[in-house]
Backbone:
């Protein structure tokens, strides 16, 4: 019984691996590439030179700004939630309450 040379066997395995990778790359490059759409088929949107502001929106913004400007103090409560992975890589959600 003849024992194959280990160096020749390793070289043959490496060559087969390289052949498989080269074959896979060749198959990927032979796939048809998507054809980009022509620019004429894109919708055309015309915007005004100067944006118009709605009077009702301006009135709401002015009343809210006036109320904040008149306030001597301000307080609020914020609730924030963030995720951090545990040691088991499962996501844990933490909630922070700030006043």
Residues:
């Amino acid at each position: 019984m003849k024992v194959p040379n280990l160096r020749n066997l390793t070289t043959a395995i490496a060559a087969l691996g390289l052949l498989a990778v080269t074959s896979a790359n060749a198959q990927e490059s032979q796939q048809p590439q998507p054809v980009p759409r022509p620019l004429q088929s894109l919708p055309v949107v015309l915007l005004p030179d100067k944006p118009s502001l709605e009077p009702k929106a301006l009135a709401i913004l002015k009343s809210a700004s006036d109320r904040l400007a008149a306030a001597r103090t301000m307080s609020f409560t914020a609730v924030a939630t963030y995720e951090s992975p545990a040691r088991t890589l499962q996501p844990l959600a933490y909630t922070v309450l700030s006043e």
User: Anything to note?
Assistant: The beta strands are 78-85, 91-98. The chain has a mean pLDDT of 76. Helices lie at 6-30, 55-70.
